[in-house]
Automatic annotation (TrEMBL):
Single GO biological process annotation from the record: protein targeting
Keywords: Cell membrane, Membrane, Protein transport, Translocation, Transmembrane, Transmembrane helix, Transport
Spans through the membrane: 31-53
Purpose: Essential subunit of the Sec protein translocation channel SecYEG. Clamps together the 2 halves of SecY. May contact the channel plug during translocation.
Gene: secE
MF annotations from Gene Ontology: protein transmembrane transporter activity
The organism's taxonomic lineage, starting at the top: Archaea, Methanobacteriati, Methanobacteriota, Stenosarchaea group, Halobacteria
Complex and partners: Component of the Sec protein translocase complex. Heterotrimer consisting of SecY (alpha), SecG (beta) and SecE (gamma) subunits. The heterotrimers can form oligomers, although 1 heterotrimer is thought to be able to translocate proteins. Interacts with the ribosome. May interact with SecDF, and other proteins may be involved.
GO CC terms, sorted: endomembrane system; plasma membrane
Entries under InterPro entries matching the protein: Prot_translocase_SecE_dom_sf, Translocase_Sec61-g, Translocase_SecE/Sec61-g
Main localization of the protein described in the UniProt heading: membrane
Topology in the lipid bilayer: Single-pass membrane protein
Family indicated by similarity: Belongs to the SecE/SEC61-gamma family.
NCBIfam families reported in the protein's UniProt record: PRK09400.1-6, secE_euk_arch
Name recorded for this polypeptide: Protein translocase subunit SecE
Length: 55
């Protein structure tokens, strides 16, 4: 494990990173929120189906 090489690659990635614009951030937030709601809805549907169907 070469710590110096690891640190230099971390610093290189941080230098390349930039903050997103407001438009890009809001678009990503909407897509992520829709995904979370979709997964929650799917889980609720499975829960409801398992509750109402006889064992």
């Amino acid at each position: 494990m070469d710590v110096k090489l690891d640190l230099s690659s971390y610093v290189r990635v941080l230098k390349l990173a930039s903050t997103p614009s407001w438009e890009e951030f809001s678009k990503i937030s909407k897509i992520a929120g829709a995904g979370i709601i979709l997964v929650g809805l799917l889980g609720f549907i499975i829960f409801a189906a398992m509750s109402f169907l006889p064992a």
